[in-house]
Amino acid sequence: MSSFDALVLALRKLPGVGPKSSTRMAFHLLQHDREAAHQIAQALDAAMRDVRHCQRCNTFTEAEVCDTCLDPQRNAAQLCVVETPADQAAVERTGSYQGLYFVLMGRLSPLDGIGPRDIGLDRLFERAADGEVREVIVATNFTAEGEATAHVLAEGLKSRGLKVTRLARGVPVGSELEYVDLGTIAHALVDRR
Amino acid sequence: MSSFDALVLALRKLPGVGPKSSTRMAFHLLQHDREAAHQIAQALDAAMRDVRHCQRCNTFTEAEVCDTCLDPQRNAAQLCVVETPADQAAVERTGSYQGLYFVLMGRLSPLDGIGPRDIGLDRLFERAADGEVREVIVATNFTAEGEATAHVLAEGLKSRGLKVTRLARGVPVGSELEYVDLGTIAHALVDRR
Ligand SMILES: [Zn+2]
Ligand SMILES: [Zn+2]
Hints:
By secondary structure, the first copy, chain A, is α/β, with parallel strands linked by helices. Helix content of chain A is 45%, strand content 13%. Chain A has helices at residues 3-11, 19-32, 34-50, 67-70, 85-94, 121-128, 144-159, 182-190; strands at residues 52-53, 60-61, 75-82, 99-103, 135-138, 163-166.
């Protein structure tokens, strides 16, 4: 296989990229932006080498423990559980939350073979049982899978004697948190149940 | 900047990839397919290192001169001018053409600052004047820019005493050759004017 064909094939491994767009990408880089190609290659290798999961909250970080978890200003009595780092960023942008986080890096999805282990459920239960956490705010998405995940989380956390709340229904049902406007998220935080 | 942010930024250099999809790509690779990330990085570096332009037809190749140009079975009296390697592949798939090619690697586009030099017009004129070429078939796309390019090509080639034909109008106006069905292209080849 030629290096060109190999590149087209490799680019198809990117999510959302089919044969037409991978060909267009390879063509564009070779013809117009070889510098960008090297930058992307380096960024890929660097990220795969440097980025790991925070030992406390499971988000992506380059340290053992991420900056948020290490921040003494945060309220260690509150733990907000989100599906992804992008969801965490969305909550952060509201400026309405001072507690800590746990990032599932996914959601329960039996059809896709994603079970409790894949979203680090045991690690979350262990994290929430550190003696400091008083309330776990479940902020998984209001999709079918996010709701199912929230249900499983709530059961497990309540059985461990923890107070469990859920973002209020201000967040439109069926939507992904990442794409919701700040005001709605802020309001839902205040109205959590 | 973190390696994660650097990766998101680098992936945005891919055509058609905005901030949301680059974040999704970085997340997917880190979380689910680190092996793919390394494969893409290697494929990018290999392609940028290996792939150059054929000295005769200007298409992408890893040799000095590409396989098509070296093929003694091809009819050296015919030269088909296309915009991209994908367009060349579309013509090849028809099985209706036995001549050689010249690949412009673009089209004239004054608004985007793409002039005669960027599409190797001088090299094409030189190539077409090798004494063997009898007919130049202009197969640029039937878009406004493709037509304008065809016009400039035809003027230059005719002034050098070459016979210039254009694919027949069987190809739907406004469409990109790459996406046209084989039968239409084959018919347009026969009916070239
Ligand atoms: Zn952390
Ligand atoms: Zn060639």
